Amino acid sequence: MDMQDNSANIIEIRGLTFFRGDRLIFDDIDMDIRRGQITAIMGPSGTGKTTLMRLITGQIKPDAGTIMVDGENISTLQRNDLYRVRRKMGMLFQSGALFTDRTVYENVAFPLREHTNFTETMIRDLVLMKLESVGLRGARDLLPSELSGGMTRRAALARTIALDPGMVLYDEPFAGQDPIGMGVLLELIKLLNSALGLTSVVVSHDIHETASIADQLYVLSQGKVIGTGAPSQLMDSDNKMVAQFMKGEPDGPVPFHYPAHDYFDDLLGGGEM
Amino acid sequence: MITRLRIIGKSGLDWLSVCGRSGVFIAHSLCGVPNVRKGLPLLLKQLYAVGVLSLPIIIVSGLFIGMVMSLQGYSILVDYGSEQAVGQMVSLSLVRELGPVVTALLFAGRAGSSLTAEIGLMKATEQITSLEMLGVDPLRYVMAPRLLAGFIALPLLTLIFNVVGIWGGALVAVDWLGVYDGSFWANMQAATDFRTDVVNGMVKSIAFAFVVTWIAVFQGHDLTPTSEGIGRATTKTVVYSSLAVLGLDFVLTAVMFGDF
Amino acid sequence: MHSKTLEVAVGLFMLAGMASLIVLALNVSGLTFSGAKDSYTIYAAFENIGGLTARSKVTVAGVGVGRVVGITLDKDDFSGIVEMEIEADYNQFTTDTTAAILTAGLLGEKYIGLISGADDEYLVEGDMIIDTQSALVLEELIGQFLFNKVNE
């Protein structure tokens, strides 16, 4: 690789501000993601966790601030450079996003065929190795429609790591998984991180599962980073909002009720809006 | 009044930005050196999807349109004793107008809508984003083969439509209504000129192919990735491309056959 | 295996398209691939060309020998000058050849009929046929007919 930046932080976000329409999604956020660690980004639904992923991968551009990925400012890159940088990162989508018209084998082989000039036997070996590591070597001839939700995500993970990226971003990897599937994915993320020396970024709101594997947590709420640190530190946080989120309490600084008029006035108003 | 003006202004700006986006979109998709080894299989697959799979509807419609025109033309021309001119009527109207236009409209309904829906579905299931993340440009990988396949398939379909239509017309006129087949074909050949009629018809068809495929693929690329968004974009594809074909047809006809 | 059938299907489709183009060219528009033959250009002045257009046929005894390539107006005597391309094989039209604008059928297209004369010299590139017979114009015919009736 060219000009490898080996500083401790693989991603550095400074002063990130982002609007969707008139709505402020991120308000002057700073964030560091350390090389070789598992960093979890957590927060209630609708805080823009997925948007943050899209910003980091350069799919959308911030309104202000910089996002440095491996020493390159992702938001000012030209189209071709952007694609070059993206090859260094992998992203696991919530839906898996396997190509529905190809078998599992072809899905995993796809990035290799696109970006390398390997012979068919080399590709075969690599694909089988990746599939073995997620436990789906036997499912190579199945179509994505024939896979269960957990298997889809594992197959997608095999495709994501096919090119051996330095960093993998997981978008809600546990959403909608049964306990076994969740356990398998947790184990895989941990294993890949240590075995391949990856940097992992996990976006999730499954606190306990994520906290069990993460080295560092960021808690986002209402456009701000409200807490950061190791999982054990955050569990005992005196910030009420962090505490509410970490313990999963229904009411607190993040209100149970959507903002509304006074309840009594509404009931007695007789339907007048 | 002011708010109304503002709404008009805003929709004007929105429209302009869509135009701009679609222009950038097609430029990004088609510019650059194609990779023949990797691109050809993709192009073939799309040619199959938009070309071969559209053949049945094109052949059946062409046959019936030719037959109907022959029937109608005969019933009018026989009053003037010039029923042998049925051949030239069928061939001229098919080659100049009906062939390119009807094929383009059918193509918009059959292939255009499915292009939009397919791309929309790929977008909704994050397959497009996932391509981007794998470092593969979806404009080159997904959009470009579809655009090219449309550009190639529609003119070919038009040619087939024309031939089938004329054959259908001959079937009705000669075999059924008893027009003497010598004068049927001779009149047709005398009246139809290769340069002005066949070539101009094909130029139209190529222009339609460009417009219809562009609209279909861009609508797929630009839609909101929800089931509702896909439905709306599919409808838009059919409506916009039909209108564009008919409008463009008038302009092209005026330029090609108009006397000025 | 599957991709093979796909390739064959697409190949057949392309072939069908090409074949259609050839059918349209040969059978429908009567295009011949004889290419651009050698030809020479002669002119004829008509009092009235009455609906003759470029691309109309030029015939001798009903046999096509060339085509009209252009029609212009002679500004001095207001006659219509028809420019004709005659195939080089047919180069034995005498200088006193006559040209007439004829009609194929009652409402059919106009074409030019040439009738060779008895001179010793032949028409060459750029010559003008003077002895011509204009197109029949329906209004004039009716006018003449009425005039004759009145005179009876």
Number of strands of chain A: 10
> Strands of the largest sheet of chain A, in order across it?
6-7-8-3-9-10
How large is the count of helical segments of chain A? 10
Ranges of chain B with pLDDT <50 over ≥5 residues? none
Looking at the chains present, what oligomeric state does this protein adopt? heterotrimer
Weakly predicted, low-confidence segments of chain A: none
Question: Can you give me a brief rundown of this structure?
Answer:
The complex is a heterotrimer of chains A (273), B (260) and C (152). Chain A has helices at 49-56, 79-86, 104-115, 120-133, 149-160, 179-196, 207-213, 231-235, 240-247, 263-268; strands at residues 9-20, 23-34, 38-42, 64-69, 72-73, 89-92, 167-171, 199-204, 216-221, 224-229.
Mind explaining what this structure looks like?
- The complex is a heterotrimer of chains A (273), B (260) and C (152).
- With 273 residues, chain A is an alpha/beta fold.
- Helix content of chain A is 36%, strand content 23%.
- In chain A, the strands form 2 sheets. Chain A has a 6-stranded mixed β-sheet with strand order 6-7-8-3-9-10, sandwiched between helices. Chain A has a 4-stranded antiparallel β-sheet with strand order 2-1-4-5, with no helix packed on it.
- The longest helix of chain A has 18 residues, at 179-196.
- By secondary structure, chain B is an all-alpha fold.
- Chain B has one domain.
- Chain B contains 9 helices and no strands.
- Chain B has helices at 2-30, 36-50, 55-77, 86-124, 127-133, 138-176, 181-191, 194-222, 227-257.
- Chain C has 152 residues and is α/β, with parallel strands linked by helices.
- Chain C has 2 domains: 1-35; 39-143, no CATH class.
- Helix content of chain C is 27%, strand content 32%.
- In chain C, strands 7-1-4-3-2-6-5-8 form an 8-stranded mixed β-sheet, with no helix packed on it.
- In chain C, strand 3 and strand 4 form a beta hairpin.
- The model of chain C has no long low-confidence stretch (mean pLDDT 82).
- At the B-C interface, helix 2, helix 6, helix 7 and helix 8 of B face helix 1 of C.
